Amino acid sequence: MASKISLHDLPSRHLPAPVPIAVLTPESHAAMPLCVLLLGAGGTRENLADLQPIFDEWWSEGLEPAVLAVPSPGMDYYLEDAAGSLRWDSFLAENLIPSVHASSRTNGATFVVGISGGGYGALKLAFARPDLFTAVAAMQPMLEPGLHASHSGTRNRLHHAAGGPPQLIGPARDAALWEANNPANRAHANAQAIRRAELAIYIDAAGRDFLNAHDGAEFLHRTLWDLDLAHEYHLVRDADHGGPTLRPRMRRMFAWLSALLRPPVLDAAVEQTATAWLESGMKGKPPQGATTTDAFVTFLRAQFAPLRKKAAESDPAVTRRYGVL
Prior knowledge:
Number of helices: 10
Oligomer: single chain
Strand content: 15-25%
Largest sheet: 8 strands, mixed
Distance between the termini: 46 Å
């Protein structure tokens, strides 16, 4: 599938200068979702030209196409500082997203996806404004483990050497500002809103991350677990912060997004056959595929419903999606 790139400079009252933007639009007559792709520190809109043939290939292979928008963040770390001049959450939500929706053939659905520092930016934006997004996906997000700035030491501050806003990155950072931007804190603050919005969440971490970013991803995974927030989490064995695993991991992330747009279609004939077998009291040998049907899972869930209800009388955690570990 062919695509084209357009370049823009988007001004905003939320940032000190217009932001360079690149928009990749597949050749398609159908309306598509918008995918805001946030790159890591030092990434620019020019990187989208390098990614264009990869997305063209993936879309030709059957992944659902999307309008991709990539801003150049500089070294801002997508900081949202209400008292300062850097308000990236506000820019993305109030300027970039409405602008691309208005100028492109989109269907209203919006994804926010990020890599490294962009993963941090994507997660904190989606957790702060879950009603804006269908899904958030982050690959090797640059996260520190903990709810307070003091919880992370040298091991989890290696990325500070690359630079960033001094109020966020460095020895003199503002602890309250860091906590206000931290995705795990935002998940705590907005858990009910995230759950109500049914925000789909995907997190990928590299098992040998030379920046130790996997510590923060694991901490966020456990935070979401404790908050009973549904998510998909991949700790990729022996993967690093970049390198040869980057492309297949990135494809897996976009395949996950594609599956949200095109959920599997149940085989009506198989479901009907399974239902008839269940209604017969499961007499005889189960029809082929019966035990993997939606009807069979629904049947099993119903069988366990009284047991779950009784158990919940002594342990309310029974009714949670995830147990309290």
